[in-house]
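pinned: reference chain
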Amino acid sequence: MNSIAENVSLGSGIRMGHGVVIEDDVRIGDDCVIGHYVVIRSGSTLGNSVRIDDHASIGKLPMKAANSAVTKTKTLPGTEIGNGCIIGSGVVIYAGAKLSDGVLVADLATIREDVSIGEKTILGRGVAIENQCSIGSYCKLETNAYITAYSTIEDYVFVAPGVLTSNDNFAGRSEERFKHFKGVTVRRGGRIGVGAVILPGCEIAEDGMAAAGSVVTKDIDIRTVVAGIPARSIRAVEDDQLLDNQSWFDDSDG
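pinned: its structure tokens
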């Protein structure tokens, strides 16, 4: 049996599985598909033609541990999911997250509060995006990538499987650390290879690339490839790999 609050706004052509819970003030657009045992929390908004697979949780409130350094207690707006998004099984999307049109979130991924995701970005299986992050449009974050809190990922960024990022150079010790939390920044067209580690505050410039397995301890210059532990510049990005030179790339809309 489903549990749907009386003041929910449901569009036409919705298909809904068993055991669905939809709380107060939720708005769901036309032609949406909601799987079995999905929970949609108060204030969430779904656009048209959204698909949410089994056991997903939309609009979850964050848990505040007594010693959490970055999770704040505050009132959050409802989750916003744009038109044509696909949300996989077991996905958790927190209140205050906003997904633009055409985003795909694969099974078991987590998107924390105060996160924005641009249109047609793909988040792979098990991707975790912490709070206070901005993810651009047309990005691809592959399986088990971890994006730490206070990070910025611009448009057309590629993040390979198993990439790790960090925002705390003090590794959880000293009061001084609270003044210096800073995530990573990846500018337009930046790329990170499989298993790379990006340390707090590092910026990857446009079309910059961190090679597989590298440990990035300082900024990466524009159109530069770095590799190694610690990562060092090894060459320029080849012309045929630059974002602007891809046959599929069209930036006519800015």
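why pinned: The domain at 139-241 is CATH 2.160.10.10 (UDP N-Acetylglucosamine Acyltransferase; domain 1). The chain has no helices and 33 strands.
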